[in-house]
């Protein structure tokens, strides 16, 4: 048993009247000890569920990020015209609505906007469809690429994927606890704003509950992150919804925790107000190929809605409407499909014997 961890656990688990918030340094220590197995299984399980019940503070999220930065992987900086976008999407995947983020990534990379994603396999608590399986359906297997080769792919194509089971295996134990507890611990919230990139980045996490947005702002401010976009997206992702007004928070230059509120209604831009339901993975991949071929349909509407927004927010286009027009051009011209072909060629070349 770790007596150091025991004292931290006592603070988190003492209830509403005597419990205490941990400092940033204390949470960094606790996170480090859990990842390295320096706390006992009983201590780790108790800490995770107690912290889940009490809910984390923004300062505590910053401490978790400190530990991830110390122990976790990072893709190295490359000279780009635009800050690298890092999408933060729930690791336990999607179960109800069709994900579009891989298409958005290809679209952005096709016009020189680099993007990084991160995550793993089907994981608790939802065991939903993860990004890595969508990429595999598109012919891109990130699961066997060591970080050095992922770096090569990122440098050549502008698309990177940090696959945590291989690149950050210390997190595996935490996933086992999540399965046993049946609840997401606050580490799952932190993962949305984790940045596995060592250079200038634009952090774009999704979230579900409004209090999470406030925690993100505090944590990112403490960490010195000046460029972020927070999206109340589909199932906690950064995919914009079509069945309701999209609620977005934009960072304000030189004001770390201030935001500019942005509300986008799909019908104002000519989109139908419904989300595309998630069927089988095969159906989704087939639908994505139709989008890449420039074919119209509901998934194309989702791709244009998201593509237009992110082309605007990355500075490629001056506003939302011009972003939507640009996205349409990129799909119909075959530019996004060509980016997928390039990515596939580069990834597959790295599997060939030297």
TrEMBL record:
Any Gene Ontology biological process: L-tryptophan biosynthetic process
GO MF: anthranilate phosphoribosyltransferase activity
Protein name per UniProt: Anthranilate phosphoribosyltransferase family protein
NCBIfam families: PRK07394.1 (NF005635)
Keyword set, alphabetical order: Amino-acid biosynthesis, Aromatic amino acid biosynthesis, Glycosyltransferase, Transferase
A Pfam family hit: Glycos_transf_3
SUPFAM superfamilies named among the record's database cross-references: Nucleoside phosphorylase/phosphoribosyltransferase catalytic domain (SSF52418), Nucleoside phosphorylase/phosphoribosyltransferase N-terminal domain (SSF47648)
GO cellular component assignments: cytosol
This protein's record includes keyword Lipid metabolism: no
InterPro entries listed in its UniProt record: Anthranilate_Pribosyl_Tfrase, Glycosyl_Trfase_fam3, Glycosyl_Trfase_fam3_N_dom, Glycosyl_Trfase_fam3_N_dom_sf, Nuc_phospho_transferase
Domain annotation Glycosyl transferase family 3 N-terminal: ranges: 6-70
Domain Glycosyl transferase family: 97-335
Transmembrane domains' residue ranges: none
């Amino acid at each position: 048993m770790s007596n150091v961890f025991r004292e931290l656990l006592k603070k988190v688990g003492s209830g509403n009247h005597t419990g205490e918030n941990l400092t940033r340094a204390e949470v960094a220590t606790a996170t480090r000890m859990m990842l390295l197995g320096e706390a006992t299984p009983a201590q780790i399980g108790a800490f995770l569920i107690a912290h889940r019940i009490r809910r984390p503070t923004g300062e505590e999220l910053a401490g978790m990020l400190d530990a991830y930065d110390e122990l976790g992987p990072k893709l190295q900086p490359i000279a780009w015209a635009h800050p690298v976008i890092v999408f933060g999407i729930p690791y336990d995947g999607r179960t109800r609505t069709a994900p579009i983020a891989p298409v958005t990534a290809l679209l952005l990379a096709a016009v020189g906007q680099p993007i990084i994603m991160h995550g793993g396999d089907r994981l608790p608590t939802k065991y939903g469809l993860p990004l890595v399986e969508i990429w595999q359906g598109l012919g891109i297997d990130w699961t066997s690429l060591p970080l050095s080769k992922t770096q090569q792919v990122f440098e050549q194509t502008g698309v990177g994927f940090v696959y945590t089971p291989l690149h950050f295996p210390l997190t595996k134990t935490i996933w086992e606890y999540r399965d046993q507890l049946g609840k997401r611990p606050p580490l799952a919230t932190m993962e949305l704003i984790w940045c596995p990139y060592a250079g200038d980045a634009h952090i774009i996490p999704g979230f579900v509950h409004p209090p999470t947005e406030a925690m993100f702002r505090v944590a990112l401010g403490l960490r010195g992150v000046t460029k972020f976009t927070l999206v109340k997206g589909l199932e906690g992702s950064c995919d914009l919804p079509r069945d309701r007004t999209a609620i977005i928070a934009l960072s304000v230059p030189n004001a770390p925790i201030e935001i500019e509120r942005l509300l986008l209604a799909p019908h104002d831009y000519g989109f139908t107000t419904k989300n595309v339901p998630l069927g089988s993975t095969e159906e989704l991949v087939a639908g994505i190929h139709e989008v890449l071929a420039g074919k119209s349909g509901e998934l194309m509407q989702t791709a244009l809605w998201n593509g237009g927004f992110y082309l605007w927010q990355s500075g490629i286009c001056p506003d939302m409407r011009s972003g939507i027009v640009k996205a349409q051009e990129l799909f119909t011209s075959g530019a996004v499909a060509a980016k997928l072909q390039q990515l596939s060629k580069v990834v597959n070349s790295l599997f060939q014997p030297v």
